[in-house]
């Protein structure tokens, strides 16, 4: 569920600091050996960037489907197309399967999608920067 709140620039900035730490961490791990951990961290970065973005607009996601609702909400930004939303939701499902069901994320998935993931992260950052 997406709720209307007071826009919160300070909280968004704080989230950006935590994201920077996660990005620094993911750069230090062996992507080939730890592909599941790498993809999980990339998903968390995207999710938190999306949270910071909607905070700036005065919204937050909450409840059982909070992550899906958050990702789906990105369609409201011209920078994100339907194919981006579908891709991020696939990433969310892969992360949930690994986190909750113990399913590994194969290195092939990371190799095939790392550039797209990084491009989405950069687009989210740019969109946030334009709002700050």
Q: Nearest-angstrom radius of gyration?
A: 14 Å
Please report the total strand number as a whole number. Answer: 2
Element order, helices and strands?
A: EHHEHHH
Quick one: overall form?
Answer: globular
Q: What count of helical segments does DSSP give?
A: 5
Account of the protein in words:
With 132 residues, this protein is mainly alpha-helical. It has 5 helices and 2 strands; from the N terminus they run βααβααα. It has a two-stranded antiparallel ribbon. α1 runs antiparallel to α2 and α2 packs across α4 (82-101). The chain is globular and about 40 Å long.
Give short descriptive properties of this protein.
132 residues; mainly alpha; two-stranded antiparallel sheet; 5 helices; 72% helix
Summarize the structure.
The protein has 132 residues and is mostly helical. Helix content is 72%, strand content 5%.
Topology overview:
Blueprint: E1 2-4, H1 9-28, H2 35-56, E2 59-61, H3 66-73, H4 82-101, H5 107-131
Helix pairs in contact: 1-2, 2-3, 2-4, 2-5, 3-4
């Amino acid at each position: 569920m997406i709720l209307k709140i007071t826009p919160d620039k300070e909280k968004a900035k704080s989230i950006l600091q935590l994201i920077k730490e996660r990005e620094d961490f993911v750069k230090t791990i062996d992507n080939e050996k730890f592909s599941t951990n790498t993809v999980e961290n990339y998903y968390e970065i995207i999710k938190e960037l999306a949270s910071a973005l909607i905070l700036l607009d005065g919204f937050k996601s909450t409840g059982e489907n909070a992550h899906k609702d958050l990702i789906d909400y990105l369609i409201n930004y011209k920078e994100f197309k339907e194919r981006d939303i579908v891709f991020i939701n696939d990433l969310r499902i892969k992360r949930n399967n690994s986190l909750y069901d113990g399913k590994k994320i194969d290195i092939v998935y990371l190799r095939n999608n790392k550039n797209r993931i990084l491009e989405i992260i950069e687009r989210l950052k740019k969109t946030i920067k334009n709002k700050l």
